[in-house]
């Protein structure tokens, strides 16, 4: 047992910071007398922790969760490149049960944190659109797989770089993504061609838009189709974020600045 304690001691020795992912109050208080920097990462700062990194979506995969927390801490200047950090998180249901020691530069910058926090659109709007796409990916349309493209933010420029494919059902409305009734409407209209255009504040500006930016020079992974190419092109030419649900493989992907920055399997979310 002493040898095991020694091994665990090596795991936590000389770390520059400890990241607590969504800790409860009693667990957080146990770190009051720890000398190392304690960084709380979670969807809300219910503990009034400082420093704090907001987790805008519930990353179910461990790597995604750690990556976002570390990228956020680097962006805020809480930790530096090359720092050794200990991450305490939950993998199985229950209390914090997983320790992971990583170096902050173990993760190459992915743009995930930037996509949410430094997006032109409100982070909550990007999150709400993600949740619509994820639910649509789980359930499809009447049990059948469906594809969809949502372009979020910089709506004026996106509209100028696209054209209507059909009548815009949202032309005279003032509805916003996140409203449960509106989300049902989005799912229903997703069975038709074209992209949804959503404003920075979440107002649904249009459906059925054909995106016209040239795809020349856009580099997307092999096997992805026209929706993904259009998402890459429009985010390269505007300040928008594009969220794509693939009809073929059912994955939800996000593009920003012409690059693929996030990929989520709805069934694991």
From TrEMBL:
This is Diadenylate cyclase. Its EC number is 2.7.7.85. One of its GO terms (molecular function) is manganese ion binding. It comes from Haloarcula quadrata. PANTHER family: DIADENYLATE CYCLASE. The keyword Transmembrane helix does not apply. Belongs to the adenylate cyclase family. DacZ subfamily. Its cofactor is Mn(2+). It comes from the Archaea. Diadenylate cyclase that catalyzes the condensation of 2 ATP molecules into cyclic di-AMP (c-di-AMP). c-di-AMP is a second messenger for intracellular signal transduction involved in the control of important regulatory processes such as osmoregulation. It catalyses: 2 ATP = 3',3'-c-di-AMP + 2 diphosphate. Residues 109-266 form the DAC domain. It is an enzyme of class 2 (transferase). HAMAP family: DacZ (MF_00840). Keywords: ATP-binding, Manganese, Nucleotide-binding, Nucleotidyltransferase, Transferase.
